[in-house]
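RETRY 2/3 - previous attempt timed out on the joint model. Re-submitting the same 761-residue input unchanged.
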Amino acid sequence: MAKKTGSFLDNLGKIYLMYTGAFLLFVVGLGIGEQMGLSNKMIGYMFMFCTIGVYALIGVMSRTAKVSEYYVAGRSVPAFFNGMATGSDWMSAASFISMAGAIYALGYDGLAYVMGWTGGYVLLAVFLGPYLRKFGQYTIPDFLGARFGGHAARTIGIIAAIVASFTYLIAQVTGVGIIMSRFLGLDFQIGVFVGLGGILVCSMLGGMKAVTWTQVAQYIILIFAYLTPVTVMSYKATGVPVSEIMYGQVLQKIDVREKEIIADPKQKEVWDLWKKKADDLSADIKALPGSLDAKKKGLQDKLAALPADATAADKEKIEKDIKALPNDAEDAKEKWTAAKTDAAGRSKPMKPYVEPFARLDMKNMLALTFCLMVGTAGLPHILMRYYTVPSVKEARTSVGWSLFFIFLLYFTAPAYAAFARNEILTTVVGAQFANLPSWIASWGKVGLFKVVDMNGDGIVQFAEMIINTDVIVLATPEIAGLPYVVSGLVAAGGLAAALSTADGLLLTISNALSHDLYYKMINPSASILKRLTVSRILLVVVALISAWVATFRLTIIVELVAWAFSIAAASFFPALVMGIWDKRANKTGALVGMWVGFLSCVIYMVGSRFYGLDIWGIKTISSGLFGIPAGFITIYIVSRLTTPPPQEMQDFVESVRIPKGAGRAAAE
Amino acid sequence: MVQELKGLDKEKLQAYWSYNVKLTTIVMVIWFVVTYVCSFFAKELNSFSFIGFPFGYYMAAQGSLAIFVILIFVYAFKMNKADKDYGVEEEEE
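RETRY 2/3 succeeded.
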């Protein structure tokens, strides 16, 4: 076994190069198949099942019965490959499908996501990664338990790890279901469970070892899938196939076109229509509950007044309208307020795309960037990856490789957004309704793109488009006029992104339960076999619960994911950093600090989201802005007011700070 | 766990740590300038053009990211070297 692993590790480069070649051949083969008449549906199925099959195969081949392989891949993953694995562990369905769309919609201000989700790795590199590797146990709660003595700190670690990872996991599982249903026409529920099967075969048998080698394979697919369409688009639009450089020119074109649109009186007409709609809605909300009754009565009268020869369809239409009315005044207030906010947003004349702080004000953009950065450096499923490298030296380089592989996708996302925006502003805005590009119809069918001729002039105005911004990445292959096989590739890439992140999260949660809760706190004398069995069972249970929750399609999930960042940032990050950087930090300080960070973050979240709490105009998504400093300051002050940690603990901190001795932890 | 501390010169350890703190501070200053100072002045920076991009936009979309990557690799290289210089490197297997 040892020899076999050795030869696998020695030949990693060759193996993954061959894998990449085989994958490209597979794509080209399907492309040829498409020319010869292979149906779109068939291509979709081939992509989904072949890629999931490969992930499952890697899982089976990496099965293991060793604790260190199950939890930390035997600490044998080279820096470069750990970087790739971290890249796909990190890049979720949201990065792959939604980020470019957010930039499309938010312009400059959307770059908060690009900077925030990359800049966090600098914090990780200098404050945490290498030291956690030197510490060299299995989980993040392990470190909290060891440094701040005992079960209390470990327990908070377990809770924070589960809260942050679970919401995030549900979002990934939902992503898997959406991709499956959109591209294969499968039922959402079935899609979720098919995708889940792929995740489970992989992580259950081989734990971290299997997840690592699958994530490397998934990274390769997702990066090809992401770069291909936009590269072709760049080549077609500018003659140079390097989208990341060429979109500078496109930004200039967008700017010129936006000035034309802003000056066009027809566009203004539509903005005014939205404003009127918003005003009408606020009048209705003020007049509740009378306005709701009046609306209901109006429709009922209309139904009663229908002439005897009216068709059934006419009747049905009015009945449907009545049904669509809110149930009661409470419900009406909520629905109409949401509609009013939406209409008011659409009534604002367009602001230039590259203008900073046009859509988010400066302090909110900077606060969001900050929370995303610190949150990134505090997410347990990412931190855990730095336990898997062989040495402190490799841990340091590995953070660099991680960010490099993430960078490849993130610096391309704004290019996607720019090319798509240019395309939409030039070929859709100003087009005749009778003569729209075909991709609009096909994405309109699944509800991602809607155009309504509000002012009845037969021409598309900017504010007449209602776009689900996910369409930016999903429709680019069609906009660029590429064959269906590229759309299938994009779907496979999105699936790889969602599955790889789900794998990492699932393992984090089940390890927190099986290793930290069961083995360290409940039954420290459990045998290796028992520990691994418990871990595998928990993995399946957590997976099933997450799939079950995902089937409810709760809209709050997307919001909760954003919250997870602030929670991780405010509860984990200060305690981890102070544990390494402040020798004087003690148990009491850390415990109080974690609670204060966690609570001040959650109180602001809930307060600002539901009860109108507002400090300095900071939005809910950036709640960590208060929790992070609160956590740090509390740990610092409380530690100094209470007894210093014992000499052994200070020596322990000293030892974590130097790389010497890291090899021994690996051998344990 | 702490046996590696034995036989190490206390002063040398102190010097290694202060070198690390110094390096970390430099990294954080660059990180801060690239992210927050550049964003703060994004409007002003947008009046320059850089390979066809408004410069403020370029820094947020690409420039900062590239600097982050380089920053981490330089930090890793410097620290890996410092380990040897101060005699605290991990033992080769």
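The two ends of chain B are 18 Å apart (CA to CA). Closing ticket.
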